[in-house]
Design brief:
This protein has a domain at 86-152. 37% of the residues lie in helices and 24% in strands. The strands form two sheets. Strands 6-7-8-3-9-10 form a six-stranded mixed sheet, with helices on both faces. It has 257 residues and is of the alpha/beta class. Strand 1 and strand 2 form a beta hairpin.
Length: 257
């Protein structure tokens, strides 16, 4: 059974001045444990698509299914990691981690220990009593990852979670997120503007056309690259060929050829 299905999903917006079609007839299947990335020009609807998958937005037409369940509202089995960590500055790191469990009604000694164990695995156990402003940007994004994992969702949505970080931290965090999600056999959908990041982290890369966003092409990343950690994938002899292939396709979209 596929983990995630998008069936002819379209999204339009109506204002007093005009009607705008943001997404048009998106159909896509993401298998259990698969990691895909969504690329496309600015304004093509990448983040809108993630919001629809999460249940935060209802599509104008079409359907999103997670397993056998239609997604019609925010879903407990879906985690979301954003560009900003959105940690509450007046709460300690531990309190931030456990807030999701408390809101969902799954907080107990066992789930608390699981969350704190994740903090330990990611090298932040000694930071649990600190406040967000006492941590670096990379540390805060690691906390955001733990917060997402703490509720044990089966599907992870990642909306440019590394774009605000310096390049060295970004590369380290790519490896950490990739390794963690693969070890936990999580299904993941990443939105990014970075072609290299998409190739390094993904099993497939989905390229959307300019607005209205449609699936223009899906690139299968060769196994010899897809199975490597992102930093190692970037060093692979065939990595640049994949980069050039996707780059040229994006250029053809931009030029309209």
């Amino acid at each position: 059974m596929s983990m995630l299905q998008l069936l002819e999903v379209s999204m339009g917006y109506v204002s007093k001045r005009e009607a705008t079609l943001a997404l048009d007839n998106i159909s896509l299947t993401v298998e259990d444990g698969e990691f895909i990335s969504i690329l496309g020009p600015s304004g093509c609807g990448k983040t809108t698509l993630l919001s629809i998958i999460s249940g935060l937005l209802t599509p104008t037409s079409g359907q999103v299914k997670l397993g056998d369940q239609s997604i019609k509202e925010a879903n407990l089995n879906i985690g979301y990691m954003l560009q900003q960590d959105y940690l509450f500055p007046w709460r300690t790191i531990a309190d931030n981690l456990l807030l999701g469990q408390k809101i969902l009604g799954i907080y107990n000694e066992s789930t608390k220990n699981e969350a704190l164990n994740w903090l330990k695995k990611l090298g932040l156990e000694d930071k649990k009593n600190l406040y967000p402003n006492q941590l670096s940007g990379g540390m805060r994004q690691r906390v955001a990852l733990v917060r997402m994992l703490a509720t044990n969702p089966s599907l992870m949505l990642l909306d440019e979670p590394f774009s605000a970080l310096d390049y060295q931290t970004k590369l380290k965090l790519e490896d950490l997120v990739f390794q963690t999600l693969k070890a936990e056999k999580k299904t993941a959908v990443l939105v990014t503007h970075d072609i290299g990041e998409a190739i390094a982290m993904s099993d497939r890369v989905v390229l959307l056309s300019p607005r209205p966003g449609r699936i223009h092409r899906v690139f299968e990343i060769p196994k010899e690259i897809a199975l490597l950690l992102p930093f190692e994938a970037r060093q692979h002899v065939n990595f640049n060929d994949q980069f050039q292939l996707i780059w040229k396709e994006m250029e053809s979209l931009a030029s309209g050829t």
